[in-house]
Amino acid sequence: MHYTEIIFFGCFIVFIVGILMLDMLVIDKEAHEVSMKEAGAWTAVWITLALLFSVFLWFHGDLVHGINNFSDLQEVARRYASHLKLDPNDFEGGLEQYRHHMTISYITGYLIEKTLSVDNLFVMMMIFTSFGVSKMEYQRVLNWGILGAIVLRFIFIFLGATVIAKFDWILLVFGVFLVYSGIKMFFERDKEEQMDVTAHPVVKFLSGHFRVFPRFHGDAFFVRAKKEGQDYEVVGKHRGGHLYMTPLLVTVIFIEFSDLIFAFDSIPAVFSVSLDPYVVFFSNIFAILGLRAMFFLLAGVAARFRYLKPAVCLLLLFIGVKLLIHEYVEIDAVWSLIFILAVLSVGIGASLLIPEKKK
What we know:
12 helices, Integral_membrane_TerC, membrane, 3-stranded antiparallel β-sheet, single chain, Integral membrane protein, TerC family, transmembrane, transmembrane helix, mainly alpha
């Protein structure tokens, strides 16, 4: 890792964490039920920030890798975009070419992650319903879930990039897995998902190894309590008792686990458009940051987009095939972006224009 990459990456993390802390500790300090208007405003804010970052990459993307001369550019392109035809006599032209490739890859990765996130929203809704979480606490759980997701994505993405650099055949494994996921999702698209949280391994593990309080206690993650017979009494610090985790903390851990499973689809998918771990990370993080607002925005209307799931299946198939044939056929990043936009437009348009048949 080049020292300029470390500096840029550090500044990016500080910026993102700073925004999240401002959001969690100042703007959304008081627990409240998020309205459609507030969710829409925050969705616009996160999308704007993501697009502004793409503008930065378009004009100054070379700063991420600290490219100062043609040798630097050639080395970075060799690692992350070997298909680019760079002219040694035109450093500025090559630099512009790489910046534009980087930006298109970032936008494509962002769209892929956003699209796949829609399916994850349904899982989140089921988790909140299954645990009986109050709508007032949705935001708090999602805030901490996002922080955990950032840490998990960092580990997954840079570990994945290291593995790909050493064993490039792993991309074929990703391709097969994504094709399988797309086919499986298509045949199970109408299956009504159910979740029994009490029987889930995560809940069983937490209940077996930690003290879990049997009910919610406001927005607290931990309470100090005494067990008297079959009942529990919350007590002060000086009255003894034991520390218990509340169902709200169990919900956060469960959300993190679901994101871990979700990442097995989404991260290989974004690696199909760019091998640059920084581009993959940036696109993932901006998509995740907007996930909370999108949850509140789409929670009430997500079921109306019934053709979006088949569109996601088609995207997974396309991305998987793209990885399987990448050694023989190089699909340009621009054409990938156009295809993804077209599939999403058709899926959303069909959902809105074709009336659902009455059952």
